[in-house]
Each structure stands twice: as structure tokens, then as C-alpha cells.
Amino acid sequence: MISAATLKRLAKLKQKKYREAERRFLAEGRTLVEEAVVSPTQFLTDPDDVRRLSTLTTPTGPIAVFPFLDVPAKKLLEKSDRIVFLHGVQDPGNVGTAIRAAHAFGAGIALSTGTADLYNPKTVRATMGSIFHASIAREVQPLAFLEEAQASGFATIAAVPEGGERPSSLFAGKLVIVVGAEGAGLPEEVVSACRRTVTIPALAASLNAAVAASILLYEAYMRVLP
Length: 226
Known about the structure:
Number of domains: 2
CATH topology of the largest domain: Alpha/beta knot
Strand content: 15-25%
């Protein structure tokens, strides 16, 4: 049985500063927890304990505590030939969904400084377990990362609302696709740091980051299928 002191300490993991201090995060829900490929440091099923730790109006349980999973940006470039780089995407649901898309289409994912916290409970839930499978780097400095990616043989491609090449221009080589937040888009210096631009043809004025990332990752994935 878990002690009251331990439960109180784990409850603090709902806040970013405590997650960073302990380098651990909460994962809630059986489907999510069963996707884990690493062992939790704690696993809680008691309804009272779950209610104490849950961030949901209706707790689903169980709740497990896992060590941080992210990798350094340099390691990400070694592990993945296709990477989607989210720049300034602040909605945790969009970030989690993009991580799920990266997992689905065999890509890694980089999260810039200013992007929603990878270990926010909302982000974790939105990944539907893909947080345990995709290679993810966080707090990435955009210009330095793009420079290092290009030096490592990656094509760097910025998603822009107009004037870019069609998604069908993506190729099967190593590439980093940079996607900004809906509305704000990408800063000019980030677009300029990329070698190419791409635009998704659409009737809507803009697409949210998760949708844009999913479309572009799928286009890139199609070019490596046998």
C-alpha cells in the first residue's frame, strides 16, 4: 500500500516544475499504460489513489509513473531519417496528436522551446501511448537544430501557408519538416533557415499543426514504402 507521503509527492508531478525536478511523469488510463515499453516506477490502481493523482473530471485509472523518455536533439538526428519539428505549438492536444502521427509514419519528433510540455498530462493522453514508441527531443533550439540537421545530410523543409512546393515534392531521403502553430505560423528566420518550403493545398484558410504534420508525414512515409 502506498503511503500518504508518497502519494502527496506523486501528486506534485501534475506540475511541470516537480516533473522536471524528479524527471518523472504521470500516465493515466489502461490503454495508455499498456502501451509502455519501459517499467513504471509506481503503478496505482486503488480508486482513492487514482482520484488523488488524476487530472480528469472522471478518473479512468490506473495511473503509472514513468521516467522521462525524451532524447537529446543530436541523438534524434542519429535515430530518425524523418523528423517533424513543431515550432511554438502551445496546444498539448495538438502536440500529442502530432507525436501519434510521427509514430504511425515512422518518424521522430522535435519540440521547440515554447512548445507545449511533452509531459503535460494532456499531451501524454493525446499521444495514446505513442510517447513510448516515437523518438522525441524537447526544448530544441530551432536555428541550431536546423543547422546541425543540414550538416548531417537532412533536407530541411518549412511548412508555409502559401507559395511553397506541393507535398508530393517530398522525397525519400533524410528530412526535417518544420511546422508552426496555426495562425502564428513560423518566424521568418526559421523559414529562411530551411532549404525549401512546402504548402498543403486546402480550401480552409489554415490547418492546425497536428493536421498539417500528419499530412506531410504521410506524404514522406509514402515515398519509403516498398
